Amino acid sequence: MAAKIAQISSIHDPKEKVEKYKQLITELFNHQDVKGSKELISHLLSTEMPLVHSRQVISFFATAMEYLQNAPLIEVASFTLESFGPRSAAFEEEEAKIRDQLAEVYSAKKEYQLAARTLSAINLEGASRTVSADEKADKYIKIAEYYLELEDEASADTFNSKAGMVIHLCQNIQLKLRHRVCHARIQDFKKDFLQASRTYYALSQEGQYGVVESDLLHLLQCAITCAILAKAGPQRSRLLATLYKDERAVHLETYDMLEKLFMERIIKKPDVDRFSEKLQQHHKAKLSSGFTVLETATMEHNIIAISKIYNNITFDELGTVLEIPPNKAENLIANMVQEHRIKAILDQIHGIVEFEVENDGLSEWGGQVESLLQSVEKLVGDISKIYPVMA
């Protein structure tokens, strides 16, 4: 290898020299020659060859690296990035190409931490090279996606927010959709299930942008799952109604649970256990109360369902229905009252909860109609008194 490099170095014509280097690179990569590739890159970065010519060769080297298999690529790419050292500013474009390929390989090997670190080291905000809004957004979103695979929603949020700074300048619709999906997943991981469900559901209706039906149904399923996990209350009830009325929902495995919640039926432990099997790992985490997100959501739902049947119930009876100790049942409903998700009065002296009857939208509308009819009837009566002939 040293002889080949020396022979090329002795060529005086710059164009011929560059072409010979390219031929050597092709030969090395075709043979998956890691040792020879390292020797060549060390030579190119230490030579007195003008930067304009060495950059041409190293640019070709970076692009042609895609012909290396995964293991050789990791070794050659890592060595090259390390060899750039203090001269990396002179090879920003080439470094970006190498890091992009290296991150893809790490991702394929499910080494997402290394993939994220490799890609995030690319300088996307420097003034030395022009980076399009689409490229910036793509890189930032990809890094966020890697962190989501690691269930590191905080880091994912940081990079997805960076993408959000330029996404309005992007022309690529698929890129914008990826950004929104990433945002929904971050909300999901942060346990902001109500908002995550809304975002997923909006995305599930974006069929006009060429999203395949299976992906739209997956997004709808994510929306239903998050709605089921969301805190029980009026907002969640409205969202469940919207999802239940979507004709596509009936074909999904989450439909049975969705229907029971929408119909305000009491959810039993076997239902919870069956649904829990379909959840992702982060959905199964326990809260400070000692219950999982799903257990808490279904117990809160059951409290609302009970409030539709009973005017009052003791904490002991409530605990029996929820299959938890009375004191935990009391804490659960107290939290719902405090967050204005249910109207009730807790009588701790007598150990009883009094539910306040709430008029739903239909009852309120009916009352308004009745009031209007009474006003019209009164008006007709007044007119009849003034103009008896019209009576």
TrEMBL record:
Sorted keywords for this record are: Cytoplasm, Nucleus, Signalosome
Which Pfam families does the record match to this protein?
A: PCI (PF01399), PSMD12-CSN4_N (PF22241)
Q: Which domain of life is it from?
A: Eukaryota
Residues in PCI domain copies: 192-360
Q: Under the cellular component aspect of Gene Ontology, which terms does the record hold?
A: COP9 signalosome; cytosol
Chief location category: cytoplasm
The record's PROSITE patterns line, in alphabetical order, gives: PCI (PS50250)
Quote the subcellular location field of this record. Cytoplasm; Nucleus
Q: Which family does it belong to?
A: Belongs to the CSN4 family.
Protein known as: COP9 signalosome complex subunit 4
